[in-house]
Input
Amino acid sequence: MTGGRHITRTARAAGFTLMETLVALAVLGLLMAGLVQGLQVAVTAWKTQTRALEARGDLDAADRTLRNLMARMEAGGITGRPPLFKGTARSVTFTTELPESADSLVIRDADVTLMLDESHALVLLWQPHSHTRTGPPPPQGRAVLLTGIDQLEIGYWQDAKGGWLTEWRSVTLPKLIRVHIGFSAASARHAPDIVVAPMRDRWRL
Output
């Protein structure tokens, strides 16, 4: 009898009660729920970061494009004429030299216009520039730089006395050009102002 009681007590000691099993299952369930939630948070963060990187890539590409084109502005003086430059608060038109990737083109100088279209897209319009154009103008090219834009503000620096102007009327190029791009509130995107100093020699009277 003594041996039987000892075996029974040993078996009970080695096993789990129903309460212990339920507690273990509850703890395991909490751990699994925490792991799943943590995984969901990680996936959401990864998706958010991916979207941010994609958006940042678009902004960087637009920034580099505009800086490159504005830095290559034609300042005039070659033909004795002032440069082609029309600047307002909502658009700017100028003649520029296309980048080296356009070496295959016969004419690398182009007249370009930066503006915001009806679909709230920041677009760049261009066509080949010619000092002695005859016949109908060539078809105009169009490229979308950014979408979801609510606001485009362009400023032109004259000097410390005149400050930033919303319209440029001089026959010479402005010393600085500032492009402010405002996104819609829903996009939660922000872009720093693009400030460029045309690098070519300015046309002089």
Q: What stands out?
A: Residues 18-71 form the longest helix (54 residues).
